[in-house]
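Hi V.,

Quick status before I head out on leave. The structure for the redesign project is tokenized and pasted below; the design run finished overnight.
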């Protein structure tokens, strides 16, 4: 993944439904050529069939699909979307932080999640990001990440 934890970082003040939030979080990775257009749809389809199994805490979602469902990069990538307004996923109404994982393979999948979880725990990043209400706050919290 290189030195930067996130390949993309976004903040939105718009009220989004969960499908739109997944698409928005995937968009930069698609634009960078890291995933295909089908990757977001694979996440959405799996969520519709099996529910949002990737909700890791009341305010944090880590949506992802299998590498063969559209990951193009040889390195795993993370795209961070911080929402000022809570996004209601099925059965989980308060998600504010969405990190799309595009894992190149199984080994990188585990390593990337470990690295992300360590960063979220460090200095209470998860709690801080879940309460961000402005682009300025977001920029301060994610600088150099």
């Amino acid at each position: 993944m290189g030195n930067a934890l996130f390949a993309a970082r976004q903040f939105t003040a718009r009220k989004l439904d969960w499908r739109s939030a997944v698409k928005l979080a995937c968009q930069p990775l698609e634009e960078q050529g890291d995933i295909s257009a089908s990757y977001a749809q694979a996440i959405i389809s799996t969520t519709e069939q099996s529910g949002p199994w990737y909700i890791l805490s009341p305010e944090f979602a880590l949506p992802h699909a299998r590498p063969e469902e559209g990951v193009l990069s040889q390195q795993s990538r993370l795209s961070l979307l911080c929402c000022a307004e809570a996004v209601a996923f099925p059965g989980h109404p308060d998600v504010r932080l969405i990190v799309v994982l595009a894992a190149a393979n199984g080994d990188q999948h585990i390593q990337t999640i470990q690295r992300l979880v360590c960063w979220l725990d460090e200095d209470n990043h998860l709690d801080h990001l879940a309460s961000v209400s402005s682009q300025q706050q977001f920029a301060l919290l994610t600088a150099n990440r």
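Above is the designed sequence. The CA atoms of residues 38 and 70 lie 6 Å apart.

G. will cover questions while I'm gone.

Best,
W.
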